[in-house]
Specification:
The protein is mainly beta and 172 residues long. It has strands at residues 6-13, 19-26, 32-44, 70-71, 75-82, 104-114, 119-130, 135-138, 148-155. The radius of gyration is 20 Å and the shape is elongated.
């Protein structure tokens, strides 16, 4: 794989509930199929221990990019979702920045995709919302390892073994 699928241009539109827009870019010369996705807006403290969303955890939006979505070669897919209103912050993102001692907003997500059966790649992001531009562009030092593009999750040789004749069908 020459170039991995990349997530970018994450932007939050303040409100109740807030909306998140981002782009999934496939700069590679081959098509990819989305296997699963999980994206969310979190509210937590700067420097706290952070983790990527997993299906079934808390308030992850698991269908921001639906399973089976085709990402053609050299394409972009713009996606928008609303923050979940069942969170402690009710999905509301204010237009004013929180103070340094208050919880901040983060965009996190993971996208699993493949070219064909027998392989699986992951692209993930974990970025803090910056004010006043409302872009999720701040990668904290402790979160750097949560930001990956094209990590190999699984890859097999996928060679079909040669068939051997069955003894039941032989003439001997």
């Amino acid at each position: 794989m020459n170039l991995p699928v990349v997530l970018g241009k994450e932007r939050v539109i303040p409100g109740v509930p807030a909306k998140v827009t981002f782009v999934v870019r496939n700069p590679c010369g081959c098509d990819f199929e989305v296997v699963s996705s999980a994206f969310e807006i979190k509210r937590t403290y700067i420097g706290a221990r952070h983790a990527l969303p997993k299906a079934g955890w808390c308030y992850a939006v698991t269908d921001a990019v639906e399973r089976g979505t085709l990402l053609p070669a050299h394409s972009q897919l713009w996606t928008t979702f609303q923050a979940d209103t069942r969170t402690t912050f009710r999905g509301a993102v204010p237009a004013n920045a929180p103070s340094e001692s208050e919880p901040h907003f983060y965009f996190s997500g993971r996208l699993l995709y493949r070219r064909f059966r027998g392989e699986l790649f992951e692209t993930s992001v974990y970025r803090r919302l910056s004010y006043p531009d409302f872009e999720c562009s701040i990668v904290e030092p402790g979160d750097a390892e949560l930001n990956n593009a094209g990590s190999v999750v699984f890859k097999s040789d996928f060679r079909t073994p040669a068939r051997t004749p069955s003894k039941r069908n032989s003439l001997d």
